[in-house]
Amino acid sequence: MNSLQQCTDRSTAAPPPHARVVIAKPDLDGHDRGAKVIARALRDSGFEVIYTGLHQTPEQIVSTVIAEDAPLLGLSVLSGAHLTIMKKVIKLLQQEGAADVQILVGGIIPESDIPELEAMGVDSVFTPGSDISRIVETAHRLTATANDIREPAC
User: Fold this and answer.
1) For residue 119, what are the domain limits?
2) How many domains does the chain have?
3) pLDDT, tens digit only, all 154 positions of the chain
4) 58-68 and 82-95 are packed helices; what angle lies between their axes, rounded to 10 degrees?
5) Which pTM value belongs to this model?
6) Under a CB-based contact definition with an 8 Å cutoff, are residues 26 and 56 in contact?
7) Which part of the chain is the B12-binding domain (predicted)?
8) Cα 20 from Cα 37, distance rounded (Å)
């Protein structure tokens, strides 16, 4: 039996990992507990998570998304600058030919700003108290058809 057959014949093989997701804290936000909780939940559900850390510029965030070839970007914004930051991030993604990247935004987002974020191209917005399992389910749904889903290692 060759190695390809061994890989495909395993009945106990783990399911393939899900797509990569970049989690970022833009601008001057200094509180990242929520971002880390979401990053861990996504990792535990099979995503490959790249957490950029605090104080990232839109340019740094987009650069990481491009470098990691991630089909999903999650931003945690607590500063109130979510509209300005998202306009810049979406513009940069478009300039880099990555307008197909799915975007999740979480944080202190007034309900009245959600339609504007969605009109910009944000795929889903999560406010404080959102159910973590709903966030994970949304990430699964948004990446279910992503071309970037990796093959399992044998």
Assistant:
1) 20-149
2) 1
3) 444 444 444 444 445 567 999 999 998 878 899 999 999 999 999 999 999 999 999 999 999 999 999 999 999 999 999 999 999 999 999 999 999 999 999 999 999 999 999 999 999 999 999 999 999 999 999 999 644 444 444 4
4) 40
5) 0.83
6) yes
7) 18-153
8) 16
